[in-house]
Model the fold of this input.
Amino acid sequence: MRKRLLDEELLASLPGVEQALHIVKPYKIVAREWHEEDSVINVSGHPIGGKDIQIISGPCSVETPDQMQKAAKAVKAAGVKLMRGGAFKPRTSPYTFQGVGFEGLEMFREAADAEGLPIVTELLDVRHLDKFLEKKVDVIQIGTRSMQNFELLREVGKINVPVILKRGMSATISEWLMAAEYIASGGNHNIIFCERGIRTFETYYRNVLDVTAIPVLKKETHLPVIIDPSHAGGKAWMVAALSRAGIAAGADGLLVEMHPNPCEAWCDADQAINPDELKQLMSELTSIAQILGRNIGR
Ligand code: PEP
Ligand code: MN
Done:
């Protein structure tokens, strides 16, 4: 990539200059400015973006083979095409459950393969990448807390596995776009933005789903944008309303936490919907997609 010849800071420091502004975007590859058409990301045969909406669902964390088998069956039965689950969990406290690790990845792969579902899982540590590739993880999730882990971003930029890039909990849109540019500049353009709620003064809910970010990102980038209603609201009863809002606002998909038995979830139990609620949600979203002239779950 060509380096900028005119440095904003250099010009701004000159006498008589109040402000120096770039009139082209600092993010090149992800910007719509240079790529007008919507990019459609192909996740193991399932398209996300353009006219296609995809729902991704599954538990917050991988727990046991039985839990993963039940979850995979529920995902399939609801007509959802992609499954999520974390084998490595970024937890606020080092004393809480940290995920079952590589063993979990194995359980996840087996349960999902039995139902023919591609898998989405979070990469916390760059040292785990080879194992993720060996297990043929279909989509690598970069979590909120890692959005500006630049070394991690660079590494996933060198492969061609699709990446879901979650927004940092206090990240601005431009920081988020620049984080995506780190991945894209390495050659991997298969990036999906995921708005998962931002931190504000409000304490009633876990985070605030920034629905406004959806049209803004759709304007700024050609890449798909999905929302995570689970980590936004933090409560299962809010998931359907936030999901409908996200899809109505133009999101290209959802990342939703669903557990075969939410009360027993080892992680994020409050926000997990159950298999019946996932079915109901899919039927509501199918109607919304139809009104918008979009396909859901191809
Ligand atoms: C998750 O998806 O389970 C997760 C940890 O999400 P976030 O990075 O958005 O907190
Ligand atoms: Mn979670």
Q: What stands out?
A: The CA atoms of residues 2 and 28 lie 11 Å apart. Residues 60, 231, 257, 267-268 surround manganese (II) ion (ligand 2) (CB under 6 Å).
